[in-house]
Request: fold
Amino acid sequence: MVINRPKSTSAHEIRTEPFLVRWTLITIAILFLTIFVVLPLVVVFTEAFSRGVGAYFSALSDPEALSAIRLTLTVAAISVGLNLVFGVIAAWAIAKFEFRGKVFLITLIDLPFSVSPVISGLVFVLLFGAQGFFGTWLQSHGIQILFAVPGIVLATTFVTFPFVARELIPLMQEQGTQEEEAAISLGASGLRTFLRVTIPNIKWGILYGVLLCNARAMGEFGAVSVVSGHIRGETNTMPLLVEILYNEYQFVASFAIASLLAFLALVTLIVKTVLESHLEEGQPASDD
Reply:
């Protein structure tokens, strides 16, 4: 018995737009990306190296610049670590269990997306400032939150904590609970099931969420600007230092720091593309 298979339809056959319309849209998209993405990057690196490689590395090796780089990396590492733990726990609870307040928890996770980073920073000022809710108690115990590393970490953690959780929640919901239930029925403990079953299934999602969280943490400006106090050599992160140097007409130094941030963004984009390919490979094929 011969079965006639339907002919596959190529992408060319299903196009309905005229040739001129297609190329007009493509041209507009390329022009938009060139003007708003490529040209700014070219300008940043051109200005950074405008006085030569020596001046570029001299600007990056300045003690103030090194302090900003160390602080940025330190704050990013702490905030990403905290958000990783919170994100995995929150996603696991939301995706695997039903409980009262689940919708409210999801809303809280999305809160930093809807609140301006500057407002987020002001909230911490109202809580931990000298006239804030906890200000008197903190001062009496000699604890410094604002205008110090703890305040910067808190502000950065707040604006970045949705990224890991929001990446894992739909992934874990799609996977369901069958594999965990099977492992527990075979005698595995809850912790062993989590480490041997849950984590391997979501490892690429975790890496993707951590990547996005880290990129936002290193580039955060608004909330950090409010709580840092702009103490030179102590509480200035890389984005804050870029603004300070530019306002002082130290353009080479300013663009050198900016180029380092841009380079980290490009690396993030490349890694993000690789992780997206792994995530797509891990998606189950849909039934026709």
